[in-house]
Amino acid sequence: MTQDVNEFMESLKISESLKDQLRKKEYAVENLRRISRYAVIDKNIYYNMCLSITDLEDCYVSEIVDLIEEKIVINENMLNKCIELAQRRKCGEKKGALADYVRSVSFDDHKLKEAAEQFDNLKELMSHVSKDDEMVFYDPKRVIAVLKGLNVKSKKIERKGILNEGKLRYLHKAGENPQISEEILQEHLKRTNGEIITRFPPEPNGYLHIGHAKAMYLDFNFGNRCILRYDDTNPANEMAEYYESILDDVRWLGYVPWKITSASDYFDELINFAKQMIKNGSAYVCHLSTEEIKAQVQSPYRDRSPEVNTALFEEMICGKWKEGTAILRLKMDMESKNMLMHDLIAYRIIEKDHLKADKKYHVYPSYDYTHCINDSLEDITHSFCSREFFSRRASYYWLLDNLRVYKPVQWEFSRLNISNTVLSKRKLNALIHKKIVIGWDDPRLFTLRGLRRRGVPPQAINAFVEKIGITFNDSIVDVRLFENIVRDFLKDRQIVNVIYDPTEMEIEGQGVILIDGDDFRQENTEGFLRLTYGQPVGLVNKCAVELINIDNGLLKVRQTDKTFKSRIHWLQKDLQNVKIKVRELSHLFKSFNPEEKDFLEDVDPDSMLIVDGLCESRIMDVKVGDVVQFFRKGWYCRDEDENGFMMFNKTVGMKK
Ligand code: ATP
Ligand code: MG
């Protein structure tokens, strides 16, 4: 035996008697050394293997080592099973497990292919197959050959915890979503190389809010690539400001879009598809009013000829028809129980220029018409959306099959609702227009801008959406859960002393300091534990004091050894102290669920109180956007100065 092998045996840290046994089995050691080169299994497994193989014949050991080298055996379980099989074979027991195996090799390649398709990588496949199918232990080369033929990706997507839970675990893998023809699928796979592609599709008609953070969590973490796609099909609502803020907010949360696109990038394609549908008799120009359409009457224009429809649609495109006088509808199924199959609107006239589209169209595509086609054109594998889109699945698939194009899978999750606030852009807009809040970035709002201005770190937002998970059931998450998470992310912040309503306190024989007016009461009230007559208080890093009397607002106290119930902070009476302004913020709405009634009626008028504060001079070093802890008060974020004062927004209070 060579020195080399002895060294290797040393490194295994196994007992002397085991080493002795191994030395008698030259090949075993040689094989073990081979394993070590591949480092696919850990020391424990080596050890286990050493123990077991001492009574195995070398040829079996080699076979097992082959499996390890090929990365077919990747964990201890599999190894044990291998050894067990080999032992049985040695005993001549060719029935039982081995008989099953013999049957399993008669599985044709097709079966293997089927299994392989369910997995993103070899390792996962193998660990799966090994659970109930012993064939992998026998003929790994064949397994691998089949897998190679399939071009199975070894690139595994490391999904975070919640993306591996519940229904998400069972979502299809790339290439598994059914298409009307195999050709469509193969073309799609060729373009995507089997990658998982998702998109985050905000409409640039407002700022993003924490609900979008939930959608982004799923869209950006689920697959290999995520497209940021502006869903900009209605120029009446969209503004340049929103395109910019959305991208900025996406980046602030730490996401990097693989590509940035807009629905309007595809206006030409969308028009061409519409013309194609008119030609094949699946779309028609209709002149019913909105009310008539809502009443679900069958359109009298349904059976116009493709030629007439083509001519009318051209007229709509170039502005010959006025807004509201003509629409293009899809000829779907008026008998369907699903109202969204009742001849959806594909195009309507909007007399407004689009911000981004370079060609002037007078017609604009509807959400239902656009979204699925955009998803298809971008080869999206999983089109995640919130639950209200569930009933739109049917039309989504109907349309793409009608166009004979690639069909993604739409999958819905529940919208995020948070207690004591509203999220929908329509409601946020109302609050802004009525001047109930300062703007989209009012620090009481759960817009990403508001949260940023309030000092909430983006990591806390992501941790929060991760914590609540991706579910299908709608619920309202208690805002206090969010606040707890925010606190966790602010633990390490600098602490400064700030007092409100500075009140002078003269300590007998020592001098005058300042305390927070709220830390003292003339008359004791139940539950009040700080300074009052007959109730001493501790001064942080100083002594305890008891109240003697109040002289013209000056609290006269003396040092005491008596016990006290709480400790308060204080400031030196010092010219260097800085006057600041603080926005003391609480929940914007009084009710847990402000949407239950008229949400505007539920606004808490005291949700933002501006308070004067006095602070030690260290506060001057705090920059705009920085968060510090005001001792005993909570965490506060510096905002832009107001009227020459440093301004702070309360991020979150101390835990009660
Ligand atoms: P809003 O009602 O706030 O206007 P929206 O759905 O119209 O919401 P979009 O900009 O169209 O907003 O949404 C972009 C993506 O974000 C969509 O996939 C949408 O489903 C998702 N989304 C919007 N609000 C929420 C929410 N509260 N929770 C989870 N996802 C949301
Ligand atoms: Mg919308």
From TrEMBL:
<dbReference type="InterPro" id="IPR014729">
    <property type="entry name" value="Rossmann-like_a/b/a_fold"/>
</dbReference>
<dbReference type="GO" id="GO:0005829">
    <property type="term" value="C:cytosol"/>
</dbReference>
<dbReference type="GO" id="GO:1990825">
    <property type="term" value="F:sequence-specific mRNA binding"/>
</dbReference>
<dbReference type="Pfam" id="PF20974">
    <property type="entry name" value="tRNA-synt_1c_C2"/>
</dbReference>
<feature type="domain" description="Glutamyl/glutaminyl-tRNA synthetase class Ib catalytic">
    <location>
        <begin position="196"/>
        <end position="476"/>
    </location>
</feature>
<dbReference type="GO" id="GO:0004819">
    <property type="term" value="F:glutamine-tRNA ligase activity"/>
</dbReference>
<keyword id="KW-0436">Ligase</keyword>
<keyword id="KW-0648">Protein biosynthesis</keyword>
<feature type="domain" description="tRNA synthetases class I (E and Q) anti-codon binding">
    <location>
        <begin position="568"/>
        <end position="639"/>
    </location>
</feature>
<dbReference type="InterPro" id="IPR001412">
    <property type="entry name" value="aa-tRNA-synth_I_CS"/>
</dbReference>
<dbReference type="InterPro" id="IPR011035">
    <property type="entry name" value="Ribosomal_bL25/Gln-tRNA_synth"/>
</dbReference>
<dbReference type="InterPro" id="IPR020056">
    <property type="entry name" value="Rbsml_bL25/Gln-tRNA_synth_N"/>
</dbReference>
<dbReference type="InterPro" id="IPR049437">
    <property type="entry name" value="tRNA-synt_1c_C2"/>
</dbReference>
<dbReference type="Pfam" id="PF00749">
    <property type="entry name" value="tRNA-synt_1c"/>
</dbReference>
<dbReference type="InterPro" id="IPR050132">
    <property type="entry name" value="Gln/Glu-tRNA_Ligase"/>
</dbReference>
<keyword id="KW-0067">ATP-binding</keyword>
<dbReference type="GO" id="GO:0006425">
    <property type="term" value="P:glutaminyl-tRNA aminoacylation"/>
</dbReference>
<dbReference type="GO" id="GO:0005524">
    <property type="term" value="F:ATP binding"/>
</dbReference>
<dbReference type="GO" id="GO:0004818">
    <property type="term" value="F:glutamate-tRNA ligase activity"/>
</dbReference>
<dbReference type="GO" id="GO:0005739">
    <property type="term" value="C:mitochondrion"/>
</dbReference>
<comment type="similarity">
    <text>Belongs to the class-I aminoacyl-tRNA synthetase family. Glutamate--tRNA ligase type 2 subfamily.</text>
</comment>
<keyword id="KW-0547">Nucleotide-binding</keyword>
<protein>
    <recommendedName>
        <fullName>Probable glutamate--tRNA ligase, cytoplasmic</fullName>
        <ecNumber>6.1.1.17</ecNumber>
        <ecNumber>6.1.1.18</ecNumber>
    </recommendedName>
</protein>
<dbReference type="InterPro" id="IPR020058">
    <property type="entry name" value="Glu/Gln-tRNA-synth_Ib_cat-dom"/>
</dbReference>
<keyword id="KW-0030">Aminoacyl-tRNA synthetase</keyword>
